[in-house]
Amino acid sequence: MKKGKILIIDDEQELVTTLAERLNIRGYEAHGLSNFAGAFKFLNDVLDVVILDIGLQDTDGLEVLKRIKEINPSIQVIMLSGYGDDERINKSLQLGAFDYLIKPVEIEDLISKIETAKQKKEKSK
Amino acid sequence: MLNLIRQFLTKLTEDRYFYLKFRLILLNTFFAIIPLVIVVTITYFWIYNIVHDEFRNNLRWQMAETRHSLEFFISERISALKFIAHSYPEDYFSDEKKFYRLFLDFKKEFEGIVDMGIVNSKGIQILYVGPYQLKGKDYSQAEWFKEMTLRTEYVTDVFLGYRKIPHFSIIIKQDLTSKDDYRLLRVSINMDILQRFVSKLELGSQDDIFLINKDKILQTNSKLFGSALEPFKSFALKIETDNKDIKIYEIDLNKKQAYLAYGPIKETNWILLTIIGSKPYKKIPSFFTKEVTLISLFSIALIFFVITSSINSLVNRIHRADQEREIAIANAEHADKLASIGRLAAGVAHEINNPLAIINEKAGLMKDLLEYGDICQNKDRFIQLISAIQENVTRCKTITHRLLSFSKKIDRAREDFYINEAIQEVIGFIEKEIQTKGIKIVYDFQKNLPKIRTDKGQLQQVLLNIINNAVDAVDIGGLIEIKTESIDNDRIKISIKDNGPGIPKDRMKHIFEPFYTTKSKGTGLGLYISYGIIKKLGGDLKVLSEIGKGSIFSIQIPVNPEAEEIK
Fold first, then answer.
1. pTM exceeds cut of 0.80
2. Can you spell out the DSSP letters for B456-524?
3. pLDDT score of B410
4. Does B404 touch chain A (CB under 8 A)?
5. How many domains in chain B?
């Protein structure tokens, strides 16, 4: 039994694959995408957490967040970005992001956030 | 004195505000004083003319008085003599005893009579009473005797005569009805009497009054022009003897301005003459010279004081406004610069964060594989190396995250607290280092400061950073003074002063820029972050420094930032 289903969307392919592998090692079912186009098939699935970058190649991460929340509001989205400005942070939280983390992040911190997000999702059911 | 003038001139050329003050004070005082000067000058000349006219009138009046007294004296004696000559019986003029009695009576009644005599038509004095031996003297060649052939009465000029004493005579012709002949009744009066008349006037040392005759021979002694009977020839003056009026002229007496007044004496050849050189007419009344001068000086002083103080305050205001404008421009430029740097730093941080995240995750994965996977050779060595990579990633992350925090808004973690207590807490963190270095901390806390409502954690971070810098700046046994004070009741100022070496001017410009450090181990982000925090708390962070004396960092923060925002 996997600890949770996680989708990582980031235009840095190297980061996506590495992070997914690390989460997988830790017992999660993590999938990585470098663009939003392939994300739809996951969204209707039982997805616990999306780890989303703001600056994507094909679209804006905030737009993706909005779409995710429209399709499935119960999915918890953790924003993971190299930016740390107020505007993006506030906008993300307003659009329903669970949290906003600035790269690079310690895997333990990320897992801790994932777990809290999962709990929130459970409660919201 | 020369040094003072030089300093003044240097200041005038170098300090444009001083020059402005000087020019405005000079111009304003000049134009304010002009009407006063005009009024005072006009008044002065007006009063001068009044005094001058008064002097001329007074002189004329005094001359008339003296002349009148003299004329009365002469005419009185002429009338009396005429009466005697025409009314007394013949024997009074032939009998010596009776003539003597007549003389005594006459002398008793009329002051100044010295002697009396009768001269026959041949010029021989046939009767004489008086102190001199003049009976039988021949006057046929005397000027007055010749005059009397044509006249019935005559007042002689002053002359010496047989007695050799200056005197004059009043002579009356007595017609002898019986023989178709005449005789002359004459009395002599000493010149001293005339002198007494002219001496009645009170005169100054440069003034003079005397009598001359029509031939300009002094008839009385003159203070300035000699004794009686000497010619009066000090200055060329055409004296009109026909006109009976008193004439007044301005003359040049020994290159000095003086007044000359003269008038002829009736029944005589004399002219009364006065010279006034003492210039009493120039004496402006004391109320003008004293009161008006005092009032004018007081007014000028008052005008100068009011103009100076108002221009001083005006130019100081302009100066302050200019300074504030310059500071505001400098601050705006500084804030703009820091904001640009902030944006740049945030951009750089973002660009670095992405590859850093990849390095971090790759290293993390390697570690994971070693920890979760099969045991391989040198596993511990690999984990050690990967940890080193991760540690350095963390170091980089600290820097990029701090860079990002400059433009990041602070959470509204506001709480009410006392600033003095918050500072004491900060000192508590670094107490050990302070003690080790033997640094003396002096607190100058204002009591009863209000609680402030702001992010205590962030503010303490700033305070810790600045106090830490001060601790690094001072030598062993150095001094740090921390002062708190209220400004306008809605802001609090915290000053941290050290007696370190001070910051050179060229470094001051960069002090709040990121990565600018003078410490060997510093990141150069402390003051950059502090500045960002204080700005976000609605406050201001400034630094003043002097080489060799130390630096003062002052933080101003609003007591209640929410209230400030509403404003």
1. no
2. HHHHHHHHHHHHHHHHHHS-TT-EEEEEEEEETTTEEEEEEEE-S----HHHHTTTTSTT---SSS--S
3. 46
4. yes
5. 2
